[in-house]
Write a structure and sequence with these properties.
single chain; alpha/beta; Phosphoenolpyruvate Carboxykinase, domain 1; Phosphoenolpyruvate Carboxykinase, domain 3; 3 domains; 6-stranded mixed sheet; 32 strands; globular; binds adenosine-5'-triphosphate; binds manganese (II) ion; transferase
């Protein structure tokens, strides 16, 4: 039976997906919550939030993600970073998944990836779980109801957590699979209920499609000064570096917290919602994000709560440290209604340095910015990926290697051109450790990071005195009003200076060893910015 609203010419049957039980097209939030609760997928929490757990998978499974190796993408995919799947294996996976789905009820959401109509993707997401439909409806951008009557999906994602892949037959690694087929414009996800896979699949697609149109896709958050798109800032950063936290600033208009494009018209959000970490989320430090956990239909993932009072325990990591909530942007009071920003005036690269070596803020030349963009240094936070249990230093190029189907230089060149054209000021911000490495020092106070960012964005930081960092060559402010001057010089925060110097030397060496792979592909000025 077909329920809901859909383009009659673009039903699942029209796409060859037949024999299902009930199909629910484009249900709105209350109906999805109702269905999810009725099906026992989770519970209604305080304020009407939807509380659920994702089972075995509480983070992404990057090693189980595959790109189908077809002739049309053979020469453009970065195969060293994207595991290939044979087209025949994908076809078997597709057929087996469709036969597994027979008789089951499914939820279909027709949505846009991209706030700029010139560059958006029309994506259909077919989910076995009602709450996955709710999640992706929060996360992507919703067409007007009337637009649904003619909505024709460009791409289709089928997400079926009860389907287990067979590595021998389907050419994958385990029973879990995320397979992208650029020829069939189809993504198949099996054996994981972690909702983040849905949104990051769309991100991966846009990362492939947009560079050909001269648009830079970015793993970044973005905001602008209220009423002034000329004062747009973007915040690149890997998971846990503070994109979501720092873009939701009380004195700025939030464009988005995770994925954006930079075109000749300015910046645009790919999404329509946010996916925030909730571990130790405090009402004092992050009031807006905290409030969303008690709003109707917010998806609250893997948080432990009192079964009787439904009180959420923000400190409980027993299901995972990667507890999350997903909510539409309009739940944040100062969010942009359009998802559109101007040309970035400030480009911030966030890193969470668990070594405690990098300064809390540094100003970068365009060549240094390119160096840090290609390096993508951070420490992985526990939980976001399976198997990561303590902050682990890593290099993930373009601040998002798991989502980059093309070679890093493609994105690097695009960003370099955009920065050269607009003259954006670039900054490196360490939201990680200070006063020692993880274990000895402590995490940078959010208040200090916010104060430094405010000074960078309002231009006042450009007027202070800078010193040149001996290890990294970038410029570091010596004194910033409202910020403890000791904090600005990481070496000064360490009790044992020799230990700092040794740690810094180790990090410089790691940067230089990692960067070797890019040397054959980059310009002389970026080469000159290479350290070590
Ligand atoms: P993801 O890509 O996984 O969504 P993210 O970049 O959005 O990650 P956040 O969700 O903002 O990262 O997570 C940053 C975490 O670090 C939050 O839990 C925040 O409270 C904590 N934190 C601690 N100190 C700082 C700091 N100085 N700046 C930013 N975040 C900090
Ligand atoms: Mn985030």
């Amino acid at each position: 039976m077909t329920n809901g609203r859909v383009n009659p010419k673009a039903t699942l049957e029209a796409q060859g997906i037949t024999g299902l039980g009930n199909v629910y097209y484009n249900l709105i939030e209350p109906a999805l919550v109702e269905a999810a609760v009725a099906r026992g997928e989770g519970r209604l929490g305080k304020g009407g939030a939807f509380l659920c757990s994702t089972g075995q998978f509480t983070g992404r499974s990057p090693k189980d993600k595959f790109v189908v190796r077809t002739a049309s993408v053979e020469n453009t995919i970065w195969w060293e970073n994207n595991a290939p799947m044979a087209p025949e294996a994908f076809d078997r996976l597709h057929a087996d998944m469709l036969s597994h789905m027979k008789g089951g009820d499914y939820f279909v959401q027709d949505l846009f990836g991209g706030a700029d109509p010139a560059h958006r993707l029309d994506v259909r997401v077919v989910t076995e779980l009602a709450w996955h439909g709710l999640f992706i409806r929060h996360m992507l951008r919703r067409p007007d109801r009337a637009e649904l009557d003619s909505f024709t999906p460009d791409w289709t994602i089928i997400n079926c957590p009860t389907f287990k892949a067979d590595p021998a037959k389907h050419g994958c690694r385990t029973e879990t699979v995320i397979a992208l087929n650029f020829d069939k414009k189809l993504i198949l996800i099996g054996n994981t209920a972690y909702a983040g896979e849905n949104k990051k699949s769309v991100f991966t697609l846009l990362n492939y499609i947009l560079p050909e149109k001269g648009v830079m896709p970015m793993h970044c958050s973005a905001n602008h000064a209220p009423g002034n798109l000329d004062e747009t800032a973007i915040f690149f950063g890997l998971s846990g570096t503070g994109k979501t936290t720092l873009s939701a600033a009380p004195d700025r208009t939030l464009i988005g917290d995770d994925e954006h494009g930079w075109s000749d018209n300015g910046t645009f959000n790919f999404e329509g919602g946010c996916y925030a970490k909730t571990i130790n989320l405090s009402a004092e430090a992050e009031p807006e994000i905290y409030a969303t956990t008690h709003k109707f239909a917010t998806v609250v993932e893997n948080m432990v709560y009192d079964p009787e009072t439904l009180e959420l325990d923000f400190a409980d990591k027993s299901l995972t440290e990667n507890t999350r909530c997903a909510y539409p942007l309009e739940y944040i009071s100062n969010a942009s209604a359009t998802g559109l920003g101007g040309m970035p005036k400030n480009v911030i690269m966030l890193t969470c340095d668990a070594y405690g070596v990098l300064p809390p803020i540094a100003r970068l030349t365009p060549a240094q910015a390119m160096y840090h963009f290609l390096s993508g240094f951070t420490s992985k936070t526990p939980g976001t990926e399976r198997g990561v249990v303590e902050p682990t230093p890593t290099f993930s190029t373009c601040f998002g290697a798991p989502f980059m189907p093309r070679r890093p230089e493609v994105y690097g060149k695009l960003l370099q051109e955009k920065i050269a054209k607009t003259g954006a000021t670039c900054w490196l911000v360490n939201t990680g450790w200070s006063g020692g490495a993880f274990g000895t020092g402590r995490r940078m106070p959010i208040k200090a990071t916010r104060a430094l960012l405010s000074a960078a964005l309002d231009g006042s930081l450009n007027k202070v005195k800078f010193r040149k960092d001996a290890n990294f060559g970038f410029e570091v402010p010596v004194e910033v009003p409202g910020v403890d001057a000791t904090l600005l010089d990481p070496r000064a925060t360490w009790a044992d200076k020799a230990a700092y110097d040794a740690q810094a030397a180790k990090l410089v060496k790691m940067f230089s060893e990692n960067f070797g792979q890019y040397l054959p592909h980059i310009d002389a000025d970026v080469k000159a910015a290479a350290i070590g």
